[in-house]
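Quick one, probably user error.
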């Protein structure tokens, strides 16, 4: 994979890609930069079966709510393209293809429970297919239509990131020192990112910014991914361990916090990477604005509060070991929730591609989402 270190000023994507679609003589492929080995290696993967796509999501080769959604959409399209290609010359029916598509949706839907973008993208692909089942399309036409729908979802994500970046950059002043948790950058989307997009846009506009990056245990998305991304863009950063955030807030060194989200409930409660809640409480205690940046596809108006958000429990070894090196006594009891919920009281604003939502969120999110192309 080639990595270009100098993105164009104003570009809607970085100089490298997180997830993309390719077609060659072997057929279709969902392509990813393997985030499980970054930053030590930059490796691109060509996945040719929906099972490989599901495994890549489960094992965090691709992660971050919008990127998971785009990947799942591509996975659905891949499932149909591959199925149609394998049955070329046979009398494949639309009913058989739809059954295969639904099975792919179930497979992909079992990968990670918290990021609602996954289910949103699967549902949108299913609905697109169902819309055209009466149109007597050929299997090849249906496969192309689903590929185009997945490409549209990816393109919409690129545009949403740029819009969130532009809106969010208006909240960043020249000279600001910002703090972020986990990775909500280009690696977590098909475009510029969510929480990092305002920082990219502000930096490209010539504002001096400095970013404190929480390392984000247990899987170190901050240290491995956010630090790498910001370095690629030559944005000044300081990497800290998660337990240092309060120290730097208390000493007056942080002007605002920007984080992403995996699911936002109707009342504005936000599920994001484990540790986000602690950062929000600290920001509140120090009167530091706490901004959540997320596209409308992350907002789940069907659930009234964060209490209803399913929290993924991951392998205990992510905690008892660091990058495969055991640090805790063997056999020790471990808890490993991958996400926590930040109550809406701690959220200063939610920046979406359609506008900036402020409290009361049960009103403002509904207004913003009513303009969203909901499924
Ligand atoms: O477990 P991960 O790495 O998928 O968790 C990612 C996060 O929590 C991000 O902050 C969130 O998905 C927003 S990404 C734009």
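Nope, works fine. Designed sequence:
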């Amino acid at each position: 994979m080639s990595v270009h270190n100098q993105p164009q000023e104003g570009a809607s994507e970085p100089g490298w890609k997180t997830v993309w679609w390719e077609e060659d003589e072997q057929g279709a492929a969902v392509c990813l930069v393997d985030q499980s080995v970054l930053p030590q290696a930059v490796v691109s993967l060509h996945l040719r079966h929906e099972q490989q796509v599901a495994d890549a999501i489960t094992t965090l080769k691709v992660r971050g709510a919008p990127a998971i959604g785009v990947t799942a959409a591509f996975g659905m399209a891949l499932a149909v393209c591959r199925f149609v290609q394998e049955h070329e010359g046979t009398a494949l029916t639309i009913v058989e293809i739809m059954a295969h598509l639904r099975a792919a949706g179930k497979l992909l839907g079992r990968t990670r429970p918290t990021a609602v973008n996954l289910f949103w993208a699967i549902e949108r692909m299913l609905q697109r297919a169902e819309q055209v089942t009466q149109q007597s399309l050929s299997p090849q036409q249906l496969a192309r239509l689903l590929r185009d729908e997945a490409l549209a979802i990816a393109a919409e994500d690129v545009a949403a990131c740029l819009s969130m970046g532009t809106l969010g950059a208006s909240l960043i002043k020249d000279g600001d020192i910002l703090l972020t948790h986990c990775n909500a950058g280009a690696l977590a989307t098909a475009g510029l990112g969510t929480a990092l997009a305002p920082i990219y846009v502000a930096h490209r506009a010539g504002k001096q910014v400095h970013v404190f990056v929480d390392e984000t245990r247990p899987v170190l998305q901050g240290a491995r991914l956010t630090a790498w991304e910001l370095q690629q863009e030559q944005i000044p950063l300081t990497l800290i361990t998660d337990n240092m955030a309060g120290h730097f807030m208390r000493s007056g060194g942080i002007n605002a916090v920007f984080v992403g989200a995996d699911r936002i409930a109707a009342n504005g409660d936000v599920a994001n990477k484990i540790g986000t809640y602690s950062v929000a409480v600290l920001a509140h205690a120090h009167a530091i604005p706490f901004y959540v940046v997320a596209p409308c596809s992350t907002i789940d108006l069907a659930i009234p509060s964060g209490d209803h958000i399913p929290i993924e429990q991951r392998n205990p070894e992510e905690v008892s070991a660091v990058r495969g090196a055991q640090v805790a006594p063997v056999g020790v009891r471990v808890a490993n929730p991958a996400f926590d919920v930040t109550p809406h009281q701690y959220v200063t604003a939610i920046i979406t591609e359609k506008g900036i939502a402020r409290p009361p969120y049960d009103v403002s999110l509904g207004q913003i989402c009513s303009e969203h192309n909901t499924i």
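The chain has a mean pLDDT of 95.
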